[in-house]
């Protein structure tokens, strides 16, 4: 299985470039600029725009547009991802489904090159399509983890995948950093440099997806069809059976209370994580007055610190148990959010220190959460259950981004928006501490790892 594990890692490498360059760094501030230009054409985009955009008759603050777009994407994906997971559980070649969604999302991400002027509507459309496709591909990709790693291997395999993802995302971000800084010094238009960087993330995502798609051709068999509930039998056909399985998913969750409790806990603390990641570039640019080069430098540091953080958390999990390490990570996230509220403006050193704090806990908490959930998934329902998980995963959180956007719309301050996210870490941590993992793993019919 080692060869398949190595191939599996590469999808983290492929999609993390898009997550980092596009989602975390560039698209939020750039979409805000396009929206400000449309709402306030008579003032510089560096100033606060007090006019709203009208979206389907609803007034939208330009500064909250990217947060609302991610919120909308998640609401759409709530059913879509579960349906995709149910279909994937019937597919003999799930790696090709990963590729299909990845290449569709990569095409939309590459098309962001054409965003300019006041084309915020096109930006919203491409962001929705690429984010939905990312979520759909990750549902299937995460489900494959169960096929290629034993219970005792999953913390290590998941952590290495996340670590490689941060390394790949950091490498492309470094190349784009050179383009955005050196290019501007040699006369390259700043907006053109941003558009080229956005396109590069899409191309990177699409090209490197070839490695896992081809490398996972001979997957070990999944659970036999007779192990699945009767309503989910493949004889019902992929679509009809998927809807039957969608119904069964929610009915089954009642029989796995620890799995359900973990999902609810994850909903809260991961919404907090995703909101911090998605909003940090906007927070740095709009609230702290950081230059784009300073934000890029900080995110570069975050990527490479996160590479080490993911490996460090993986080793700690082998000794202390993944559940305890994730809980400690949530406490650290709460401290990071508190520090962000008090961060002084125009201080590169303080902003960089905040980035280091984020990098230490970011990869580890997410990687170990993925492996923890894999232990709680009923056998044979991996992609279907991971669709519930993925609906709360990176880039698809909605409670946090909605809170962030609403607080900014009410206060016109990103500081109050960021501190409002604290509630998600508090609630998520309290709920996670109540999960009885050993009971949940056994109830799902899985083998207990040596350390939980």
TrEMBL record:
Q: Which intervals hold domain Major facilitator superfamily (MFS) profile?
A: 258-452
Keywords, comma-separated and alphabetical: Membrane, Transmembrane, Transmembrane helix, Transport
**Domain of life the protein comes from:** Bacteria
**One family name in Pfam for this protein:** ATG22
Q: Which InterPro entries does the record match to this protein?
A: Atg22-like, ATG22/LtaA_families, MFS_dom, MFS_trans_sf
Name the predominant localization. Answer: membrane
How this chain sits in the membrane, per its record, is: Multi-pass membrane protein
Q: Which residues cross the membrane?
A: 12-31, 65-84, 96-114, 120-141, 162-180, 192-214, 260-283, 295-313, 325-343, 349-368, 413-433
Subcellular location(s) per record: Cell membrane
Gene3D superfamilies for the chain: MFS general substrate transporter like domains
The name of this protein is MFS transporter
Q: Which organism is this protein's natural source? A: Arsenicicoccus piscis
């Amino acid at each position: 299985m080692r060869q398949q594990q190595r191939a599996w890692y590469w999808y983290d490498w492929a999609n993390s470039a898009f997550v980092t360059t596009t989602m975390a760094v560039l698209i939020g501030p750039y979409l805000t600029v396009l929206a400000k230009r449309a709402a306030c054409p008579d003032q510089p985009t560096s100033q606060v725009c007090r006019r709203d955009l009208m979206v389907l008759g609803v007034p939208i603050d330009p500064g909250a547009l990217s947060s609302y777009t991610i919120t909308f994407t998640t609401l759409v994906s709530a059913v879509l991802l579960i349906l995709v997971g149910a279909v994937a559980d019937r597919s003999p070649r799930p790696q090709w489904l990963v590729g299909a969604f990845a290449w569709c999302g990569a095409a939309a991400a590459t098309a962001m090159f054409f965003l300019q002027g006041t084309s915020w509507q096109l930006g919203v459309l491409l962001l929705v399509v690429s984010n939905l496709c990312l979520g759909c591909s990750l549902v299937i990709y995460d489900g494959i983890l169960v096929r290629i790693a034993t219970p005792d291997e999953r913390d290590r395999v998941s952590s290495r995948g996340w670590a490689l993802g941060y390394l790949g995302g950091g490498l492309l971000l470094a190349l784009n950093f050179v383009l955005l800084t050196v290019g501007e010094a040699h006369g390259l238009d700043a907006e053109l440099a941003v558009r080229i960087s956005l396109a590069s993330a899409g191309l990177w995502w699409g090209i490197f997806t070839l490695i896992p798609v081809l490398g996972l051709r001979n997957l070990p068999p999944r659970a036999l069809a007779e192990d699945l509930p009767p309503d989910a039998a493949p004889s019902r056909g992929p679509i009809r059976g998927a809807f039957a399985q969608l119904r069964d998913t929610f009915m089954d969750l009642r029989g796995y209370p620890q799995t359900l409790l973990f999902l609810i806990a994850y909903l809260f603390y991961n919404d907090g994580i995703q909101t911090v990641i998605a909003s940090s570039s906007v927070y740095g640019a709009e609230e702290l007055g950081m230059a784009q080069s300073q934000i890029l430098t900080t995110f570069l540091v975050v990527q490479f610190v996160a590479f080490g953080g993911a490996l460090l958390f993986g080793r700690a999990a082998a000794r202390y148990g993944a559940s305890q390490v994730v809980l400690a990570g949530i406490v650290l996230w709460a401290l990071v959010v508190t520090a962000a509220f008090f961060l002084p403006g125009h201080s590169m050193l303080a902003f960089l220190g905040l980035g280091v704090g984020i990098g230490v806990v970011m990869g580890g908490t997410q990687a170990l959460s993925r492996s923890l959930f894999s232990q709680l998934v009923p056998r044979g329902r991996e992609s279907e259950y991971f669709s519930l998980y993925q609906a709360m995963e990176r880039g698809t959180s909605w409670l946090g981004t909605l809170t962030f956007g609403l607080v900014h719309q009410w206060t016109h301050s990103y500081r109050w928006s960021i501190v409002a996210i604290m509630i998600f870490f508090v609630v998520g941590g309290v709920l996670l501490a109540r999960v009885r993992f050993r009971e949940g793993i056994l109830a799902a019919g899985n083998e207990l790892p040596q350390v939980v």
